Amino acid sequence: MKPLILHGHHTGPNPYKVQLVLENLNLPYEYKLWVLGDGKKSVKSAEFLQVNENGRVPALEDPNTGVVSWESQAVINYLLRVYDKSHTLSPGPEASEQDRVDYDKWTAFLTTTFGPMMGQRNWYVNFNATDNQDARKRYEEQCLRCFDVLEGQLAKSDGKSVLPSGFSAVDCHFWPWLRQHEYAQLDVSKYKLFQRWFKGIGERPEVKKIDASNAKEKEAQGINSM
User: Fold this and answer.
1) Pairing relation of β-strands 4-8 and 59-62?
2) What angle do CA 90, 91, 97 make, to 5 degrees?
3) N or C: which end of the chain has fewer CB within 10 A?
């Protein structure tokens, strides 16, 4: 099997989602890094725009099938359809319709609500050129509201996984975004089940492997971590 080519960069959580799925499925892959902004090796370069005309990461090239995908949810859905034949990360044929809907709705909650709120909070805390306290407060409130929702869901698994059936691609979607809670200056100390989930996912071997590999690349390129 030829290694898949994952395109990403050292900031932002979405390429990390795909790495988690690739590692859990034991798929060989090359991680090709790009920089933000303009320039020859940037996500706006002519070379990268041939892979993803939207100029964003992640994007995935599969030389085994000739398929090119981008947007993290689309990339992960592709990997699950093609390579997760045993349904280790997604609902299997024995799953109920409610199981399938739960998988879809919690993935959508992250990609359409929780993730974007975390992204906005990160922006106004760490990058916005002016100190916009109204925006900071709004996105703090929205992020904590989402943590409230997640805490209730985690009660169904006693903090082990987002879905009560066990670790799945839904956790892969959530983990890279929610690990940024300190960077976003959010106090999540009251969310005990989240803390249990966060600690448990962080101890998984594929997470440690990705962190070590990414940290080595960041150090080699002189890039500061979030």
Assistant:
1) antiparallel
2) 145
3) N
**Helices (DSSP H) in 65-204: which residue ranges?**
72-83, 97-109, 115-126, 133-154, 169-178, 192-202
Q: How far apart are CA 44 and CA 170, in angstroms?
A: 29
The answer on pLDDT for 73 being more than 80 is yes
pLDDT at 225: 47
Q: How far apart are CA 106 and CA 53, in angstroms?
A: 28
The confidence score (pLDDT) of residue 41 equals 86
Reported pTM:
0.94
Could you give the CA distance from residue 25 to residue 79 in angstroms, rounded to a whole number? 9
**20 and 176 Cβ atoms separated by less than 8 Å:** yes
What are the structure tokens assigned to 213, written together?
């590999």
* Cβ pair 150, 194 in contact under 8 A: yes
